[in-house]
Design brief:
about 350 residues, alpha+beta, HIT family, subunit A, 2 domains, eight-stranded antiparallel sheet, three-stranded mixed sheet, 11 strands
Length: about 350
């Protein structure tokens, strides 16, 4: 079993774990629960009272110097104080032609970590001294861990989510593997996404290689639950059998072996890439290395979700002001020439 055996049980576990995570001496937990609560009104309302009380308790602890808080969490908490907890709304979606814009102000507060560093290789050694998913202080953020088809999985909440039921899946965490995909773990994720459709319809996963805005150099995937097609999955695109060119070169394979061949080619060419796993198919998207000056400013922090056509914005007015052409041009600026 992966996490739970039904969609209802998953939702119950998701909400209860968030609620139980809150503690008067854990600023990081407050930030995570607040950010996750903003996915929709129902979730926000179910956690609103607990979040309000916890905010005051954490605020008091910080002011009195009683909390052991990381620099990242302190900066985020101070930003929330400045905005006001009640002034942070739930996510709001705007369709702009074929693209999606999501007003998600908490996402703008996340630390960039290695997703903003210049790199010359998409394979870097794991460094236990840098942020990773084995850190003891992350224990409260674990939703579930166990064995799935002979692979140990650790499933954590995403602290700054940008997709529904957004989770981090870390395979065999004790092996301390860098963010460099292997055929075995690619096969595992392909199978997991396919098999979870019976439990969580709409379950999918994304992957950012190093150099493609992965923020943590430890092997991990990002899962979500979304029944609706992502913009990249629309039938209008040539890679889906349609007539229109997607703004980025995108390769879609309906087999685990075929998609691994595409990924392995990226590895052989030291080519940063992003992936989307959906049932029975994998989208492989080579892209310019992070930090490239030729990339449009709005796309410089782009990962798999942006390359799939969903852009998060932190300014509400951008829901109306950002045009479909601007999004298309952002994606074109990330694209690399096809081989």
């Amino acid at each position: 079993m992966f996490v739970t055996d039904s969609a209802d049980a998953f939702q119950h576990l998701f909400v209860n774990t968030l609620c139980n995570m809150l503690s008067p001496d854990q600023a990081g937990a407050f930030i995570l629960v607040l950010a996750n609560s903003m996915q929709d009104d129902e979730l926000r309302n179910s956690l609103k009272q607990e979040l309000g009380a916890n905010f005051k308790a954490v605020q008091s602890g910080i002011r009195r110097g009683r909390l052991d808080i990381t620099a990242d969490d302190l900066a985020v908490f101070e930003a929330i104080e400045a905005i006001g907890i009640d002034s942070l709304p739930c996510w709001q979606l705007q369709n702009t032609a074929e693209w999606e814009l999501v007003y998600n102000p908490m996402r703008a507060l996340r630390p960039v970590r290695v997703s903003n560093e210049s790199i010359d290789s998409i394979k870097q050694p794991f460094d236990e001294n840098r942020f990773n998913f084995n850190k003891p202080f992350l224990q409260p953020e674990i939703l579930w861990q166990g064995c799935w088809h002979e692979t140990q999985l650790r499933v954590l909440f995403n602290k700054f989510p940008f997709a529904p039921c957004h989770l981090i899946i870390v395979p065999d965490p004790d092996m301390q593997m860098p963010q460099y995909l292997t055929a075995d773990y690619h096969n595992m994720m392909w199978s997991l996404v396919e098999q979870q459709q019976l439990v969580l319809p709409g379950f999918g996963a994304g992957y950012n290689s190093l150099g493609a805005c992965a923020s943590v150099n430890q092997l991990h995937f990002q899962s979500f639950v979304r029944a609706e097609l992502l913009p990249i999955e629309q039938q209008k695109w040539k890679h889906a059998g349609g007539d229109d060119d997607y703004p980025m070169h995108c390769y879609v394979s309906g087999s685990v072996q075929g998609s691994w061949a595409l990924i392995n080619e990226c590895h052989n060419n030291n080519q940063p890439y992003n992936l989307l796993y959906r049932p029975g198919r994998c989208y492989v998207i080579p892209r310019k290395v992070q930090g490239s000056e030729s990339v449009a400013p709005r796309a410089r922090g782009a990962g798999w979700i942006e390359e799939c056509g969903v852009f998060n914005v932190s300014d509400y007015t951008e829901l109306e002001s950002v045009s479909a052409d601007e999004i298309s041009n952002c994606l074109r600026s990330l694209s690399v020439a096809s081989s």
